[in-house]
Structure formats: structure tokens, C-alpha cells
Amino acid sequence: MPKVVDKPKKRDDIAQSATALFLEKGYSNLTISEIAKNAGVAKGSIYKYFESKEDIVFAIIEQAQESYDKEILYSIQNTNKIEDKILALFDLCISNCDEGIKRRKIYKEFISICLDDPSEKMVDFLYNIKEKYTNWLKDILREGILSGKLKPQSLEFANGLFVIGEGVLLFSSLDNYNDENLLQLHIKSLLKLIKIGENDE
Amino acid sequence: MPKVVDKPKKRDDIAQSATALFLEKGYSNLTISEIAKNAGVAKGSIYKYFESKEDIVFAIIEQAQESYDKEILYSIQNTNKIEDKILALFDLCISNCDEGIKRRKIYKEFISICLDDPSEKMVDFLYNIKEKYTNWLKDILREGILSGKLKPQSLEFANGLFVIGEGVLLFSSLDNYNDENLLQLHIKSLLKLIKIGENDE
Amino acid sequence: MPKVVDKPKKRDDIAQSATALFLEKGYSNLTISEIAKNAGVAKGSIYKYFESKEDIVFAIIEQAQESYDKEILYSIQNTNKIEDKILALFDLCISNCDEGIKRRKIYKEFISICLDDPSEKMVDFLYNIKEKYTNWLKDILREGILSGKLKPQSLEFANGLFVIGEGVLLFSSLDNYNDENLLQLHIKSLLKLIKIGENDE
Amino acid sequence: MPKVVDKPKKRDDIAQSATALFLEKGYSNLTISEIAKNAGVAKGSIYKYFESKEDIVFAIIEQAQESYDKEILYSIQNTNKIEDKILALFDLCISNCDEGIKRRKIYKEFISICLDDPSEKMVDFLYNIKEKYTNWLKDILREGILSGKLKPQSLEFANGLFVIGEGVLLFSSLDNYNDENLLQLHIKSLLKLIKIGENDE
DNA sequence: TATGAATGAGCCTTCATTCAT
DNA sequence: GATGAATGAAGGCTCATTCAT
């Protein structure tokens, strides 16, 4: 009987195990040797499951993104107030629990790779994230407009808001920048302006 | 008599010549050998003018930033309308002339270095840019508030606006993203909301 | 099945092969490239077996010293006369067979490294050699004293004798100095003085 | 009127100034640039006065040796007891005043160079030192024999004694070895044996 | 004569990937 | 399937020496 190997599972396991290293050292300081050792697998075997080093981190990122997406969607759907929905959407940029910080780091490394030596695969992935989140954001805003809670021009801020998120992530990874609630304040201030019935003099 | 060499000039010349390579290949794919060859100089000579590879790109970045700052300040001071001042401030993220694109690329590489392997020097430099531009932005907003053209809460958007700029830069460097006027639209939309006397239903 | 490599053996083989080069060119004129080529191995492979260039020569030195120690101990134990025991101890400084000359060269390179740029590891190793050989020498002398063959003050010459050995090694490595029997003469003359019953006018 | 340069003097001055650096950093860590800067001279000028880096340290060593020789000779001639004469001869290996330590370091570096990459010039110089000092030592011993103070066989220890000196120097440069009076003890013990009228049971 | 800019070979080390077993 | 030894290009940096001015 041949040894049965659950290839997708093992692939996941390796990516899982590499995640900790990835967070700790960052992409460019990470070696295949370390990943292999950490996963309890031979260096050569890595290439049975992944095409390249980049492929590994891509798997990590994909894994993280997938689970994050689910959470976010769930959060949005289980929240009522528009403000809370939007904040939920930006949880990645705001949350300060361990899990949140971890995810931010992964995303930051992902961006770093895209900037340093962009591959089509990576850039496409980033592009899809942007589309997806911008669309979710637009859905929220559209819903608010339809229900009469938001001014019609609210939609014009969707793209910009997403991009703020990116900028915040970028800065949050650098030591000096602890403006974790910069984004919250901005969102809240903006909402005051685009909510109907709250435009005070 | 000693051979007279204008050291600062030569340093600048090398940095200048390295800039093209830097833009083309990015920091991590750039080698000292190439820089030297491109500058028509021996490898060893590079180290007469620069302390390290990082020092070279830092010089490039400093050079670019310095000249950019001057232009921006000049633009701001020679513009009347608040909107134009703000757009001038974000010229780096908006402009599509060759010079603008080049600068954006340089800035993007700079960010990339900061993300990949941040040195104190680099991060400090980034921090100072942030402070400087945020303050200029606040000055513009404050002036608008004082002159009765902007609502008081306008100031709350200063930090967020700067960060949008960063996010835009980040995305603009990736091939697929040609939303150059995303930022303009966002700014214009926001201004409509924070201007006094333009809040229409 | 994994390719089976006797790692310690290969390490030894490389060290062995490097020894010839080491003797021929000396530490500072030796390059890793040469060592690799000479061993029929890729440059990178060297670092699978050794941590650094210094590590390689240290292995060579250790190898030589280890085998030498065994021989010396054996010689001393299988010799009867005190004089012969002492001469056996200094075999490294005296012997003129190929093996002896080779060992002397290795030892000389070792000293050279210690003088030029001493690392803790190297100096400690030298220190241990000194302690070991001085102690063996003292044992021989003590035995002679106890058995009534040597005068009690003989022990006072142990340290000095060891150091003569060092000095001789040092000089023997330089081309002009062929006083290989300088040490033998000195030892013999000294023994005449410290032996009991042979102090004649 | 042509600028008159006292070339030999300037050569000496440069060597003098380089000595401190030489002591501090050792030959292999010393750069021509440093020497030039320290001497207040251009790098290129160094090569007007010296043929090579080695030539500079050779000058330093020659300078040191010359002044040392004078002192030693003077000491020997102004001392009466044989033991004191011999100790005076080995002052380089024994003295612990600043000057003595300095000289020992220079000599050690000299030996280090001879071991690492011996040039004819250096080795000849070392050979001459050996001859000179051994001869002085023999003179002292011969005088002692003639005056009936030393046994005839004393002469047999001349070569060995010189070599001990070398060995002591070599070790004294390494951190762990503080047996500064090893040599004194050895000499004194030996003298007791070779003096006439002091052979006790 | 003095200068110091320029040279460029050479150094040790790293690491993603391959492939024989 | 699994292994891990082997590869070898590439990289940043140093420094004694030369030579145009």
C-alpha cells in the first residue's frame, strides 16, 4: 500500500508553521532551511509542496486573508450601526489584540514584497483585496444612503477610505507611529459630516 | 598641486547617475558594481563618497525630497484657494509629469526599504516627512478656519489626509492601479463637506 | 532515501586537503576558493562543514595536535632514560622527518595566527598546550627527583624548557635557521648539571 | 630657492608617528591612510619616503632596535655581576616599564610579520639580532669563565638562553600569560648551577 | 615636491534551488 | 515520496599602490 499523503493538508501545515517565522523575521531574513527545519521537513521536500520561496509566503498570506475575510464578513453582517460596520471592515488596521497585530504584520510583509519585487501573482492578489474591500465598503455606504441615513455623496469616499487603511497599515509597522486610532478618528469625523441629520453649525 | 575634485559635486553626480538604476531595478536588485560602472567610476571609489549602499540611496532620497519640498512650499504660497493649496501639497501623489512619476517611484522605493529592513536613519527621515507635511496641511486648514472658509472640525482630517497620500503612493507604484485622481476626488469631496456655505442637501 | 554522507569524515577530508595548502601558503594567503577547489568541493559546501575560515585551520591544528599528543605520550611511556623522555617530549621541535617538519610548520602557522589576530579560541588552545606539556615535563622531572636521579632544583627549569621549545619552533620556521640540535644540546648540557653524580669538574 | 626637505629626518618623523598606531592596532590592522593622516602627510607622500607598507614597519622596528641596542650595551658595560649583565641583556623580555612593554609589542609584531609572510629583509634582520645578542651573551659567559666565576660548559647555554628569550616574548604578548619573571627564575636557577663554588648538594 | 582621487582585484560568506540516492 | 548534500553566482566592502595635477 503506498503511503498516502494528504498533500493539501501538508502544504497548509508547512505554511502554518512558517507563519511564526515569517512574523518574527520578515520575508527577506527568512531562509528555506529555517522553514524546513521548523516544519520538521527536509529542505528538498519544501519544493514538493511549493514552487518557490515566494510561493510559501503567498500561501501564508492567502491563508491569513481567507480567515480574515470570513471574520470580517461575519462582523459586518452582525452589526447594525453603519459606523460599527465600517469600523469592523477596518478591523485589520485598528485591532490591537495579538491576533490583530499578527495579521497586520503579515499584511505589512505582503506589501513589502509587492513593493520590493512585485510579481504578477502578488500584485493581482493585492488588487483583488482592494476590489473586494472597496466593494464591501461601497455596499455599506449604499445601504446607508438607501435607508436615508447617509448623504448621497458618501459613496465618493469609499476608495479614499480604503486607501487610508493601507496608509495606516504601512505606518503602523514602523516603530515610532502609534496613532492606532488615527483611522477611527478620521472615520468618525467623516461620518459626522456625511450622516444625515447631524450636520450642525 | 593636488588634483582638485569637487567632492560634493561628484557625490551628487554619482547619486544622480545611480538614481536611474535605482528607479529601474529597485534597491535590492541594485549592486554597487552597477552603480560604479554606470557612474563611470571604480567600485572602490564609490566608498570615497558614500559610506555604504544604503548611504547612496539615502542621498538619492534626500536629494529628491529636498528639491520637492522647495517646490511644494513655493506652490502653496503662490496659490490662493484652499483646495488648490491642498492639492499642491499632494502633488507628489497626483502629478503625472515625468518628474512626478520619477519622484513617486523614488518615494516608493524609500518606503519599500523602510518596510523591508528599517534602519533608524530611514525611519527617522520618514517620520520627519510625515511631521512636516502634516504640519503644512494643518497650517492650511487652520488658516481656512480662521478666515471663516472652513468648519472648525476640518482640522480633524489632517492626519488622515496625509495617510491617504501614503496609501495612494503605495498603490500607484503597482502596475494595475491608475487611479491617479482618486486622491483628488477624495479631497474635493471632503472639501465640499467641510467648506462653509456649501453644505447643500 | 537520503544520500548518506559521513559528515565527520568529509570534514576531516576537507581539513586534510586544506592542510597542504595551509602549509604552502600560510593562513593569510589562503582563500576559501582555493580550499574548496583543492578539496574538489564547491565554495558553498565548505560552509556546510565549517563555520568560518578560522574554523578550518583550527580543525587542522586540532587534528595535528591530537595525533601528536598521542604519539608523544606513547613515546614518553616507552622510554626509560630521563633524557630520552625529555627529548621525546620535544620531538616536535627536534624531529626532522617529513612528518615532523610538517607539524612544525602547522604549529608555526598556529602561532602566527595567535600573534596576528588572536581569537579567544586560539589563545585558549595555545594555553592548554602549554599547560599540558609543562605538566608532562614536570612529571618527568619529579619522577627523576623522587628516584634520586635528578637534583631537587631540576623542577625550576620546567617552564623555561617549554618556552625554549616555543622559541626554537619559532626560529626553525625561518629559512636561515637550521640549528635543529640547538635544543638537544641545551637539554643535554642542562641535564649534565642537574643529574646527580655527574657533576664533574 | 628649492624647498629643502631633510628626507631622512622626515622619514624618521613618519616612522616615529606611525609607531603609536602600530602598537595600538598591529601591522595587519594598520592602513596607509591612517599612517599618513597621523603623520600629517598625504597618502601619496608616504611612498616618497617608503617603498611599501612593510618598509614603514621595518623602519619602526629598526628605529626601536637601534635605540634598544645602545641602552643594552650601556647597561651591560655598567654592571659588574654576571647575573646582572645577563638580566640586562634580556631586559626586553623582562622589563615592565611602559617603554619596555612598548618595545616588547613592537618586537612581537615584528615576529608576527616574519611568521606570517617572511621577506628576506625581515628575516635577515631577525637573524642579525639573534647573532648579535647571542654573541654578547657569549662574551659575558666567556668573560665569566676566564675570570674563574663560571664553569667552562656555561658557554653551551648561550644559544638556548637567547631562544628562551624569544619564547618568552612570544607568550608575553598573549593575554593569559603573565609569567614575567619566568625568565628571571630560569636564568637565576641556571646560574646557580654554572657558577663555580655554589654547587651544593 | 606634494597631493589625494582613483583603482580593481580580492575577500568571506549566504542561500534558493537542484538532484542523486 | 523524502532527503539533505551540493551548488555557485552574487554581494558589499577594503586597501596598498599609482599617477595626473
Helix percent of chain A reads over 70%
Strand content of chain A is under 5%
N/C terminus separation of chain A: 79 Å
Please identify the top-level CATH class of the domain at 57-194 in chain A.
Mainly Alpha
What's the main sheet of chain A like?
Answer: none
Mean pLDDT of chain A: 87
Second rung of CATH, namely the architecture of the domain at 57-194 in chain A: Orthogonal Bundle
By DSSP (H or I, 4+ residues per run), the number of helices of chain A equals 10
Brief rundown of the structure:
Chain A has ten helices and no strands.
Features:
homotetramer; 201 residues; mainly alpha; Tetracycline Repressor, domain 2; elongated; DNA-binding
Topology:
The structure is a homotetramer of 201-residue chains.
Chain A: H1 7-25, H2 32-39, H3 43-49, H4 53-77, H5 82-89, H6 91-94, H7 98-116, H8 120-146, H9 158-172, H10 182-194
Chain B binds a DNA duplex (21 and 21 nucleotides) through helix 3.
Architecture overview:
Four copies of one chain form a homotetramer. The first copy, chain A, is mainly alpha-helical. Chain A has a domain at 57-194: Tetracycline Repressor, domain 2. The first copy, chain A, is built from ten helices and no strands. Chain A has helices at 7-25, 32-39, 43-49, 53-77, 82-89, 91-94, 98-116, 120-146, 158-172, 182-194. Chain A is elongated. The mean pLDDT of chain A is 87. Chains in contact: A-B, C-D. Chains A and B meet through helix 7, helix 8, helix 9 and helix 10 of A and helix 7, helix 8, helix 9 and helix 10 of B. The structure holds a DNA duplex (21 and 21 nucleotides).
